[in-house]
Write a structure and sequence with these properties.
The protein is α/β, with parallel strands linked by helices. The chain contains five helices and nine strands. The longest helix is centred in the middle third of the chain and has 13 residues.
C-alpha cells in the first residue's frame, strides 16, 4: 500500500480533512461489486492491484469466521462474505472513516454476514476466533506494523486456520519468510502476480 498523495495517511485514526466521496464499480472473481470511497482512505479511485490479487487468490473456508484486518472501505472482507454467505466475516480498521465506509459498502453490496469494528490490528477481536485471516497491510505505516500484524494473528486463530497477506514482491522478500516461520512454523507463496505476492501460513 502507498498512501494517497496530498492527503492524510489512510492509517490515521480520525481523518481531519473534509471527506470527498467517490464510487468504484468493479468485478472481482467475475462478480460485480460497488464501493463508496472517500479521501483519507486507501485507494479511492479503484480497487488497488494488491487487493485485487489477494481477492482472486484467497482460499476461504467452507464454514466459520473470517477476519479482514486493515479493511479500508471493505473490498476484501465484503468480497469474502459475498463469495460464501455461510461465513461470518469481521472487518477491522484503525481509520474511523474507513469503518463507516465499510459498513455502508456491506449494505450496498447486500451482504448481511459482515460486521465492521474499529480499532488497531487485533484489539477489536481479541475475544473472537477465526478460521481465516486476510490482510493487505499498511506498509506505509512501517514494517514494524506489518510484522506485528503477522505475529499477532495466531492469538485470534483456530487450529488449522490460515493467514493470507498480499504485499509487493520487492518488500520484505528476505525478512518476511522468517517472520512467518517464527510466528507459524510454516510459510508458502500462494500467488505471484503483477508485482505482488500473496503469502500464506497455517496455524498448527
Amino acid at each position: 500500500m502507498t498512501p494517497p498523495k496530498d492527503t492524510e495517511h489512510y492509517y490515521a485514526e480520525q481523518p481531519k480533512s473534509e471527506a470527498k466521496f467517490g464510487l468504484v464499480q468493479t468485478r472481482l472473481r467475475g462478480r460485480p461489486f460497488e464501493f463508496v470511497t472517500a479521501s483519507s482512505v486507501f485507494s479511492t479511485k479503484r480497487v488497488d492491484l494488491g487487493t485485487r490479487v489477494l481477492i482472486e487468490a484467497m482460499k476461504l473456508p467452507d464454514l466459520g469466521c473470517v477476519l479482514d484486518v486493515g479493511c479500508g472501505y471493505g473490498a476484501v472482507g465484503i468480497a469474502a462474505a459475498a463469495f460464501n454467505r455461510k461465513l461470518r466475516v469481521v472487518l477491522t480498521d484503525i481509520n474511523r472513516r474507513a469503518v463507516l465506509l465499510a459498513r455502508q459498502n456491506a449494505e450496498r453490496n447486500r451482504v448481511s454476514n459482515v460486521e465492521v469494528k474499529h480499532g488497531t490490528l487485533y484489539e477489536p477481536v481479541e475475544d473472537l476466533c477465526f478460521n481465516c485471516v486476510l490482510s493487505n497491510p499498511p506498509v506505509s505505516a512501517g514494517m514494524q506494523t506489518v510484522e506485528a500484524l503477522i505475529r499477532g494473528a495466531p492469538a485470534v486463530m483456530a487450529s488449522k486456520a490460515t493467514f493470507q497477506m498480499v504485499i509487493r514482491s520487492k518488500i520484505g522478500k528476505k525478512t518476511l519468510p522468517q517472520v512467518f516461520t517464527e510466528a507459524f512454523g510454516n510459510f508458502e507463496v500462494l500467488a505471484i502476480e503483477s508485482g505482488y505476492r500473496v503469502l500464506m501460513a497455517q496455524k498448527q
